[in-house]
């Protein structure tokens, strides 16, 4: 596993996904930090979000645990813990997937939230029924927690 992770880290360091930087935490190859700049044209634009990835001993046969350290108002992220809806990245996971795949998936749902995978029903409902209020609240959280 260590060789694969070193290779993935080198690839992500030299060619990071848009709006991201990737590093390991405390020299532990199983703990990753992803710094994400909120994508342009989204309620998260202008925010700086920290994502934590923790890789299990069974990686790549089991996916990393993904959690936002920075509070974010999003239907696919638990408000209190920052935990991301596991269905979004565990379904279809296999050893051919990698950390880049998870990061790009998370970036894609910052641009296009998936209310069908909601872990926060109230946010999902607001996003669908009163999109302007959802955007305003998400921006408020960016200003409060992600600057």
From TrEMBL:
This protein's superkingdom?
Eukaryota
Q: Which Pfam families match?
A: UQ_con (PF00179)
User: What SMART domains does the record tag this protein with?
Assistant: UBCc
**UBC core domain location:** 1-147
InterPro entries linked to this entry: Ub_conjugating_enzyme, UBC, UBQ-conjugating_enzyme/RWD
PANTHER family membership: UBIQUITIN-CONJUGATING ENZYME E2
The protein's name in its UniProt record: UBC core domain-containing protein
Q: Give the species this sequence originates from.
A: Stentor coeruleus
């Amino acid at each position: 596993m260590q060789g694969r992770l070193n290779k993935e880290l080198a690839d992500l360091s030299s060619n990071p996904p848009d709006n991201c930087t990737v590093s390991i935490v405390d020299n532990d190859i199983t703990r990753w930090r992803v710094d994400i700049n909120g994508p342009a044209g989204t309620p998260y634009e202008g925010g700086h979000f920290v994502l934590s990835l923790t890789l299990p001993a069974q990686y790549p046969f089991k996916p990393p645990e993904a959690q936002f350290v920075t509070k974010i108002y999003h239907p696919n992220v638990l408000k209190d813990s920052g935990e991301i809806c596991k269905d979004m990245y565990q379904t279809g996971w296999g050893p051919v997937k990698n950390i880049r795949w998870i990061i790009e998936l998370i970036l894609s749902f910052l641009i296009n939230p998936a209310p069908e995978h909601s872990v926060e029903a109230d946010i999902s409902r607001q996003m669908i029924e009163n999109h302007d209020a959802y955007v305003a609240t998400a921006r408020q959280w960016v200003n409060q927690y992600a600057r």
